[in-house]
Input
Amino acid sequence: MSLPAKLLHIDASVLGDHSVSRQVSAAIVARLTAAKPGLRVTYRDLAAEPLAHFSGVHAAALQGRAPPHAELDGQAALDDFLAADIVVIGAPMYNFTLPTQLKAWIDRLLIAGKTFRYGPNGVEGLAAGKRVIVAISRGNFYGPGAPAAAAEHLESYLRTVFGFIGVTDLEFVIAEGIAVSPEHRERAITSALGAAEALEPALRAA
Ligand SMILES: Cc1cc2nc3c(=O)[nH]c(=O)nc-3n(C[C@H](O)[C@H](O)[C@H](O)COP(=O)(O)O)c2cc1C
Output
């Protein structure tokens, strides 16, 4: 009998009930769990329970120069990621990029020998096969041709990071223009929730 599939749900917004990325990431998880009721969900709220900034203590533990308990939180974050078939991330844009809480989580994922390795042909990502869906929320517009497009360092950063570890088919559900006007906000949320509802329920990216 095969093990039940696992979904890891990550949120990082500091805006609590006012958060758009939380609303959209929850809708994505609801869509996937409704389609696959056996899916086991692990939830981590990086704003409520932040990981410490990656520091020399953590680096020493990773390199075996300090007791492993120094990196227990990060180990759990990495284990949850490695165990997941699907990862859903609520990713708000703050100051053109990701919140520091989400960066601290990513700092625990990019571990040589676990999620990538260096080989004769360069870097090889080891996390291929996971389906990763990101719910992005941002105040302005950053799509192709938008005046602010060059200032986008959230979606582009996450593409780089996950591509590096082998997830080259990262999926995005984007709510943008949130800060432009209440009407824009409403429209963006409705559109993103519609996109969440239309997601394929597959365990892996197509
Ligand atoms: C501290 C802070 C910084 C922000 N910086 C940006 C920014 O650089 N560019 C942008 O388009 N929107 C920015 N915004 C607007 C957010 O991206 C927008 O409110 C989005 O909905 C945040 O996601 P959340 O609602 O899930 O927290 C910022 C909002 C906050 C609170």
Remarks:
- Residues 141 and 147 are 8 Å apart (CA to CA).
- Helices lie at 20-35, 56-62, 72-83, 100-109, 155-164, 182-197.
